[in-house]
Fold this protein.
Amino acid sequence: MVGQLVEGPVTARLPRRARRNYTPYLLLLPGLAWLVVFFVVPMLSLFSQSLQTGNVETGYVMTWNVQTYVDALSRFWPHFVRSLLFAGTATVLALLLAYPLAYFMAQRSGRWKNILLVLVIAPFFTSFLIRTLAWQTILADTGPVVAFARTIHLTDLLQLLHLTSNDSLMNSPFAVIAGLTYNFLPFMILPLYASLERLDHSLIEAAGDLYANPAQTFWKVTWPLSLPGVVGGTLLTFIPAAGDFINARLLGNTKTVMIGQVIDSEFLRVQDYAVAAALSFVLMLIITAMVAVYVRRAGTEELV
Amino acid sequence: MRWVRAHLVGIAGMVVLSYMLIPNLVVLVFSFNKPAGNYNYQWQQFSTDAWTNPCGAPGICDSLGLSLRIGFIATVVATILGTMVAFAISRHRFRGRSATNLLIFLPMATPEVVMGSSLLTLFIAMGVAPGTPTILIAHILFCMSFVVVTVKARIASLDPRLEQAAADLFANPMQTFVRVTLPLVAPGIAAGALLAFSLSFDDYIITNFNASPSSITFPMFVWGAAQRGTPVQINVIGSVMFLAALVLVATGQLISNRRNKVAV
């Protein structure tokens, strides 16, 4: 809507000179050319690679071999399921954690707002690999976190839930999900903050004046108005988390291997390009389909 | 108890914020460690060795230099291309506008492994050897969409009356753009560039698909170190980047705060 307001007067004085009609195309040309050559073409190249047969030494020939997909999926479907489960859990946890912080920053923090914003963005700049390695230290068997978790029997609870397999926290599904949640949390906070900041506080007061209790106010006023942020944040968290393998590799064990790790090693170590390309292409299809359904159901199509 | 209930959101927010910052604190503390073995995971004793000799680990400063160079070039190119696209989309009506929007959105909705591996298949098919140029191509690609989105949001929030006022005061379109529009959009461009740099500097997955043994970026160095032994210098560089970012972003905020006060 804002876009239309801005465009109105500009387009109104366009037709006078036909020459200016080329401007958008000239502005778009270099950027879009880059996207077509290095994004669209590689996707086609990936698809074509997945249907070829051969090996690295003798080269690949196009044979329209659909069997690769059947083989790849029958071997690696558990990794797909696990990746989507881990990423989904991490996304829900990130939403639960990010909402109070984003709400506080946007509505209650006053002059501390900018400082909090800086603190949310700054961890980005320490390489995310280094920060994930720090979790190895934090969750180490000899550290205070494990000792505390044992005292409050959190370790027992996690074992019951099959999130850990012994009395420690590292090298477990728990550690991987905690790492994914941690790593993509800023991507959840920033869109939430952006939509909560636009929320007019007088609407919340009005709900209170009309005898809504805090829970009703939240579900009838705050939550619906923050939906664009929720949709944006969950997408920006779920998509990279589903393809990530750094957390699974550094914090997990052989039973927490995610699909990104499989694609990476099939490409670079096993060098079975056909299987790797097929897996990569399927991951792209799954994510695109999920995003399309989700965005349509949430009804925030202006996001794109 | 009443105080706790009244400040519940704030308390929850601070707990989450500490969850986000504790790893950075651990990185900083362990940059003063003197580890017993190859791995810097357990606290041994205080030492400033790594701080006085930050390039002490073989290859670490070369990889840092490469990452900074790649980050700089990728940021400049992605910011210029992205800003142009953002202006075209927000200020013009043209055929294929929604297709353009979709094409901008798709790279952000693509997992990194897919983007990295698809580029690799293209380079293999074309017979292009991986190295610094292929890393740059990939980085410009994934940074550009984020720049477009950031700049577009800033353009959309502008008050159109300011540009109309410029036109009423007999500024021609070029003058209006340079004197009014561009300065107003500049914070959005700066934010987009900062985001682009941090994405490029931090990327491991896509980079690893398109790198060669002679083009080791800093994240690739860290990844290798995680398998062989982590030098303390990694923590020093991580901490310096964190503190530099704090100073940089805080200064930016101060400047924009002061500007806003003057404007009011």
Remarks:
- The CA atoms of residues 82 and 148 of chain B lie 5 Å apart.
- Chain B touches chain A through 91 residues (CB under 8 Å).
- Chain B has a mean pLDDT of 89.
- Chain B has two domains: 57-231, 232-264.
